[in-house]
Amino acid sequence: MAARKSGAPKLGDVLLVTGSETFLADRAVRSAIAAVSKGKTDVEVTDAGAGELDVGVFAELTGPSLFATERVLVLRMLENLPAEMVTYLLEYAGAPADDVLVVLVHSGGQKGKGVLDKLRKASVNEVVATAPKTWELPQFVLGEIRSFGGSIDEHAAAALVDAVGHDLRALSGACSQLVSDSDGRAISTDLISQYFGGRAEVTSFAVADAAIAGRTEPALEQLRWAIDCGVAAVLVTSAMAGGLRGLAKFSSAPPGLREADLAREVGVPPWKLKTLRQQSRGWTPGGLATAIKAVAQADADVKGASGDAGYALERMVITVSRAHGRR
Questions:
Q1: What is the pTM of this model?
Q2: How far apart are CA 109 and CA 129, in angstroms?
């Protein structure tokens, strides 16, 4: 689970977010921004990739702003930080600006570990985004349900894990939906069965697997079956996002890594590498970018940006499957 070395982040801090569990890492970033933005309207937030950083850009992003008195700078993919920027970042970490919160996000793996070690020696605050063990997932569900204002017992929490699977983003989405639709009642196994029927994980991942393989018609058939069975739209977009995210990490991993190191770099168990190797055939960087954008749009649509979730999901499946093999 996400763990913090010290209290809530504040302006003048440098916060390090590490770990391969992207859902918890994203949540840590959002929480940090919320902590310094609470009750304020003039906090400027900049989200950038560390690989694009140079001295001038960094000075501009951490220096005084013409438009805001207080700022948050989120630098993602810290492992891609240019070597010439390491000294400047460490100097800044030793004497950060009072009106800026800098959040450094490292996605796990060995790349960039030297920078992490130096930042830790500089005593920056750290959030470690570590996925809970399988047996800890019901406790994760309990926490999510409570955070959304609902209630659930351990038996029902375990039933939700069985129905939805182990993806934290999907579990959180399911918790949010159940609390929203429970009318203040405790969430029961009957309600979980009504929504997910114990088949949500199989169905949503079957849709994703078929689409990522470029099999448009089977993917659409699986999608229609999932919709008919009442599978939540957010679980389908979550499964698709997880599949493409793993594929992108696998495709961009440094060549020549041992199986164990490659699994850590990608953030998957070693047995999943065989599946990713098969899925990666026929995918290009351009095709992956198109597919990831389509999933992001569909996720926004099913969460309220569009009035027709079914149409949004169909458009996503068609775009992803047709992006297979596209240059």
A1: 0.58
A2: 13
